[in-house]
């Protein structure tokens, strides 16, 4: 009887065992990873007070005010690449090339060096409105 239990449907038993091992290894080595352990391992890096650029069309001469004026960005990637990247290489921008209302909340976009992934961006949206008056400031 025990022999029949072990030899009945061997392919189903083999497949079940293989699937169980695959699920265990996925959870153990990837999905259950704590982000703080990644930061300790050097796979994450945060940048504070990155300025926000306003992207407009060439014909749009309006000056815009963005609130808040800076963001916090966290990137994931190869530790050697993260160590070499400078804040000046990162571009956080709000796209105003489409027709939009006078005052609007807009989603931010990030250009980062190839091989790096954006983990978090705080805030993800900013309030954009035309500047009332005054001299323009270049960024």
Question: How does this model look, in words?
Answer:
The chain is α+β, with helices and mostly antiparallel strands and 139 residues long. It folds into 2 domains: 2-31; 42-130, RNA Polymerase Alpha Subunit, Chain A, domain 2 (Beta Complex), CATH 2.170.120.30. Helix content is 29%, strand content 35%. The protein has helices spanning 2-7, 10-31, 35-40, 79-84; strands at residues 44-55, 64-67, 70-76, 91-95, 104-111, 117-122, 125-130. A 7-stranded mixed β-sheet has the order 2-7-5-4-1-3-6. Strand 4 (91-95) and strand 5 form a beta hairpin. It is elongated. The model has no long low-confidence stretch (mean pLDDT 82).
- Biggest sheet overview: 7 strands, mixed
- What's the CATH class of the largest domain, please? Mainly Beta
What is the β-strand count? 7
Q: What class do helices, strands and sheet pairing give?
A: alpha+beta
Overall mean pLDDT: 82
Strand order of the largest sheet: 2-7-5-4-1-3-6
Order of helices and strands: HHHEEEHEEEE
Kindly state the percentage of residues in helix.
25-40%
Count the DSSP helices.
Answer: 4
- The name of the CATH architecture of the largest domain is Beta Complex
Describe the protein's topology.
Elements: H1 2-7, H2 10-31, H3 35-40, E1 44-55, E2 64-67, E3 70-76, H4 79-84, E4 91-95, E5 104-111, E6 117-122, E7 125-130
Parallel strand pairs: 1-4
Antiparallel strand pairs: 1-3, 2-7, 3-6, 4-5, 5-7
């Amino acid at each position: 009887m025990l022999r029949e239990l072990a030899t009945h449907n061997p392919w189903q038993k083999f497949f079940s065992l293989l699937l169980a091992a695959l699920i265990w290894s996925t959870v153990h080595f990837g999905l259950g990873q704590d982000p703080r352990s990644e930061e300790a391992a050097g796979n994450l890096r945060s940048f504070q007070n990155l300025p926000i650029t306003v992207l407009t069309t060439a014909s749009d001469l309006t000056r815009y005010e963005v609130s808040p004026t800076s963001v916090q960005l966290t990137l994931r990637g190869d530790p050697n690449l993260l160590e070499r990247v400078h804040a000046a290489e990162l571009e956080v921008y709000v796209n105003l090339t489409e027709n939009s209302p006078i005052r609007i909340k807009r989603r931010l976009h990030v250009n980062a060096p190839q091989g790096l992934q954006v983990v978090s961006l705080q805030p993800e949206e900013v309030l954009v409105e035309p500047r009332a008056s005054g001299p323009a400031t270049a960024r």
